Amino acid sequence: MSYFGGLFSSVFERRFARTVSSDAEGQGMGELSLELLGAQGEVSGSTLAQLILEQYAGADADDKRGFFEFMMQELEIDPVDVVESLKVYKEAPSKRSYRAYAQASEPKRQELLRRLNRVPGGTERLVAMRKDLLEMMREDVKLEPLDVDFQHLFASWFNRGFLVLRPINWSSPAEVLEKIIAYEAVHAIDSWDDLRRRLQPKDRRCFGFFHPAMPDEPLIFVEVALTQGVPNSIQNLLADGRDPIDAEDADTAVFYSISNCQAGLAGISFGNSLIKQVVADLSHDLPGLETFVTLSPIPGLTKWLSTAKAPSLQNASVQVQAAHYFLEAKRDDKLPVDPVARFHLGNGAAVHAVHAEADTSENGMAQSRGAMVNYLYDLSQITTNHEQFVTEKTVAASNEVRALSASVSRAT
To answer: Where in the chain is the domain with CATH 1.20.140.90?
Structure first.
């Protein structure tokens, strides 16, 4: 009976879905959205959500902008309702008055996004939708409140509890490997042979965060080299024909590339959790590892040097320039100018060493005159470094880096 009951239910649902689709023919995304918000049934809601997402996927830029404007204007909060419901809650706090205030304070577009997210593939499509929104916001700041709603929901949907850390290696599905090539944002992967050199050797590792709703789409991944000693050059680290070492002989794990993969998840932080989880896993699997460092680019160095005020800095070595940059180049909020520095220092790392001629690629020479930096993740100091950086804006740095920077002050 359960088999026939399920069969009957499936046939009924398909017929009902076709009826909903037929009734919705000719309606735009705005009209369908209002229907979806009023829908009570699971089948009708799922069908309407699919129709909206399919229409959006096939829409041009003007229609997409029109949909965003609809959400901004028609699915906005009512300030009067918010104020009145807050007044009632303040005068008579209760479950009922709080619920009324919470409902009034949440724009209806958040519920629309939740309902769109319920259908298969909905999460991935909403991530793509936010990518479009972010691009349009560059020219239309009036759309920014809508992005606040996306960020609010994505922060919950993509929190650490839902993310799955998976190793990525030469045996991973080709679909995933192709995306690693496409998403690599620090050191371009030129070919499948180049990818093989990064994944197949016994002293190489790669890890990525995945979400159950997007199982074949990495959210962020990190490439790791297992070495003896701290490296000072990306050319040497990625050299073709180098001799791999046994993983058990390595004493250092080097995070040399961290790439965010989904433009639609900009502002949703994964890197902190990723590095800490990878450090924990590597420490467990390879107890001989003693040092955890990055080999990182310095994307803002050349630009900053063009505006630097210290006269002697222009003639100093690039190592001195970079050291001074990390310790002295600050934004108005007293945080480092360099975005990579803000990321790693905010995670509790320290500026460990700077290296000249570490990245002689065209991009490396353009952005930092070939210099690179090691950020050290000292497990005994991460918490202290993080707290001092957040509360006091203190940049944790080695004595070597501080001495290099101080030499500029002495010269001036």
So the answer is: 2-157
